[in-house]
Amino acid sequence: MKPRSLIVFAILFATNSFASYAAQNGEIHRVGTQINSSAASYKNSQQDGDGVMSLYLYYNYNIDDTWALELGVNGGAEITDWDCKKINNRKFKCDRNNELLFGIGADEVSFGNFVVAAKGQYQLTDNSHFYGKLGGQYYDYKIANNNIKMVQEYGLGLFAEAGWQYDWSNGLAFNAGLQYMDMGDLDTRSLSIGMSYRF
Asked: Where would one find the signal peptide in this protein (predicted)?
């Protein structure tokens, strides 16, 4: 999906009338963590095996019942792929699958992001709602082969996420969503799951 399409979707989502979601008992803070399993592309490369994993930590400040400000940090790297073969009933032999990344001969990618975003929420039931996030992020990434740097870039890019969240009365919440990060020539499209706590 193109970044413009994501921006249009987020604006339409945000301008619709949101139902109220409760910052229960005046709880206006939320901290959370997400694990992201992503397909990455560099300069629009499209090939199997370009997977990355990342960990996203965030803080939300609820401005009102619908809107929140989010600050987050994210860090990720390539997924090591293993080929395992059964030798007998008790033994397996596993070798690292050293497929090269992005069609450029790279075997390593690592990245970090600092995110600032607006979050809007649409209540479905007393405890669950859809959410959307749109903002920007400062990124820094490196692509390498055998620890020899091939590319290192930093700059500003788009951050977008949409998903579903379920809040329990004890302050814990579970969420699942789709996340997009535009890091210039590198971008990630992620399936995200996470837990958070409001207070």
From this structure: 1-22
CA distance 109 to 180: 17
Residues linked to residue 117 through DSSP beta bridges, in sequence order: 70, 135
pTM: predicted TM-score of the whole model, two decimal places: 0.80
Q: Which two tokens stand for residue 178?
A: 């789709």
If one compares 121 and 91, the residue with the highest pLDDT of the two is 121
Taking residue 62's Cβ as centre, other Cβ atoms within 10 Å add up to 20
Angle in degrees, CA 8, 160, 129, rounded to 5: 90
Q: Which helix (H) or strand (E) holds 7?
A: helix 3-15
Q: How far are the Cα atoms of 12, 136, 163, 182 from residue 5, in angstroms, in the given order?
A: 11, 15, 17, 13
For residue 190, give the DSSP letter: E
Task: Say whether pLDDT at 82 is over 90.
Answer: no
- The structure tokens listed for 183 are 């890091």
- The CATH architecture assigned to 3-79+105-198 reads Beta Barrel (2.40)
Alpha-carbon distance of 145 to 116, in angstroms, equals 32
Residue type, 114: F
Collapsing DSSP to helix, strand or coil, 4 comes out as helix
Q: Could you give the C-alpha distances from 180 to 60, 132, 156, 192, in angstroms and in order?
A: 19, 12, 14, 10
